[in-house]
Amino acid sequence: MNDIHALSGAYAVDALSAEERAGFEQHLAECPACREEVDSLREAAALLPAITETEPSPGVRAAVLAGITQIRPLPPLVQHGPETEALPERAGTVVPLRRRRFRTALVAAAAALIVAGGVGVGISQIDGDADGTSQEADPQEPTDEPADEVQEVLTASDVRIVDASTTLPEGTRASVHWSPSLGKAVLVTDGMPAAPAGKLYELWYQDGEGSMVRAGLMPEGEDNTVLLEGDGTGAQGIGITVEPAPHGSEQPSTDPVAFFALEDA
Amino acid sequence: MTTLRSVPSGDQPEGTGGRAPAADPPDEAGSRLADLLRRSSLGDEQAFAELYDATSARLHGLVLRVVRNPAQAEEVTQEAFLEVWRTASRFDPARGSALSWLMTIGHRKAVDRVRSAEASSRRDTSYQQQNQPIDHDATAEAAHSSLEAQRVRTALGALTPVQHEAVKLAYFGGYTHTEVATMLDLPVGTAKTRIRDGLIRLRDAMGVGQ
Fold first, then answer.
1. What is the pLDDT of residues A20-54, one digit of tens each?
2. Which helix (H) or strand (E) holds B5?
3. Model pTM greater than 0.90?
4. Which of A84, A82, A8 is nearest to A41 (CA)?
5. Which among A52, A154, A167 is the nearest to B140, CB-wise?
6. A251 reaches B (C-beta below 8 A)
């Protein structure tokens, strides 16, 4: 038993393997002393970056502040009370008080539920258990709500934010939020100049063979958040080209004005 | 078309200044951060921008130190701040400071990044950068001479050399305790104790987390 307590320091600085981490989090649920110790050691570790301070480039600030406008803050975890158990099906064996302690594991679980609820899949599955199948319960059927799909990508646990490798004009910000597990990407632009008259911006996935596959047209406007069309599973990159309005092209007819390399796809 | 082709220089001006996180006395600064975080959880973008300005150098410096590759580090910093925004309501002031909560998120993201890069591809171009010999941070540390940084260095000086190395390899190197044991030639299972003892000593020297 002493042995597992001794992992508190390594846990506080993320120095456990994934298996050890999961095991220790189980232990934390039962060990108030370890919870307190982990909190206090994290407090100590958090002082260390005082010696490594480095300003990120201004572009990071712009991207973060553009990004948050697309992300809904999570609600607080509902305080436990005798008759207000938030997620009885999932939490039946967990003492509510402990839920607040299980920060990483349960926040992730709650986030997953909320995200799933947003696309009308997770919740209808839960409803289905209790009430029979509801109309929109088929989880295979893509929903017809791009806004929710955008949210799903932006909040995916594996989402990566990729900036364009081609430099866009000054004042323009374009980044791709890419979820390899969903095979979906969202392009966020900020201050993008209008395409020339009679032209528009077309989006492309570069597939595993390097071919460019149509992924939709970008709406007009400087600031856009666009879910790319089609299946991006295995994509190597995403490009934006200028094509003839109003329908774009079947294949890119110009060099990309921006390209996003999805290295770890 | 022409506007799109005009490519500005890659150099960007330095930050707008006035973002020093340690400008206020620690307690005051700490409660200000907690307040900004609380307002962020209510969707206050202005408060979040202030939070970013007050903490981004701290968080990014940590991420950069772990990840090493500057472009990847900026991605991770960006992801971490979006996570902070999304999960701000989960910050519990009873359990610790806002700064510590932010650093925990940034550190976890940075460590996840280097470990998944190692696991997924040994051919990744960033691999070499991530695996450069642990060339210790004399230069990086020398560059930071704020009062708080000096206090931290003094407190680190109170650790035994092995504790000091173990804490730094785990925290700034992003290595697991078993990797740290191998790197420092310690018996398996000892590094975790060194890390814990070192953090306890640091905590007590700095008078935090009580």
1. 999 999 999 999 999 999 999 999 999 999 999 99
2. helix B2-5
3. no
4. A8
5. A52
6. no
Please give the structure tokens belonging to residue A59.
């572009």
- State the Cα–Cα distance between residues A12 and A24, nearest whole angstrom: 11
Q: Does residue A21 sit at the B interface (CB-CB below 8 Å)? A: no
Q: Is B43 exposed, middle or buried (0-12, 13-18, 19+ CB in 10 A)?
A: middle
pLDDT tens, residue by residue, B165-181:
999 999 999 999 999 99
Q: In this predicted structure, what is the pLDDT of residue B128?
A: 46
B61/A54 Cβ within 8 A: yes
Task: Report the residue of chain A nearest B47, measured CA to CA.
Answer: A65
Q: Tell the residue number behind the tokens 């060339």, with chain if given.
A: B135
* DSSP state at residue B13: P
Lookup: tokens for B21: 């996180």
With an 8 Å Cβ cutoff, are A13 and B92 in contact? no
Question: Distances in Å between the alpha carbon of B6 and those of A169, A190, B9?
Answer: 6, 17, 10
Task: Please give the structure tokens belonging to residue A111.
Answer: 């986030």
* Nearest one of A190, A185, A195 to A261, comparing CA atoms: A185
- If you average pLDDT over every residue of chain B, what do you get? 82
What pLDDT digit, counting tens, does each position of B84-100 carry?
Answer: 999 999 999 999 999 99
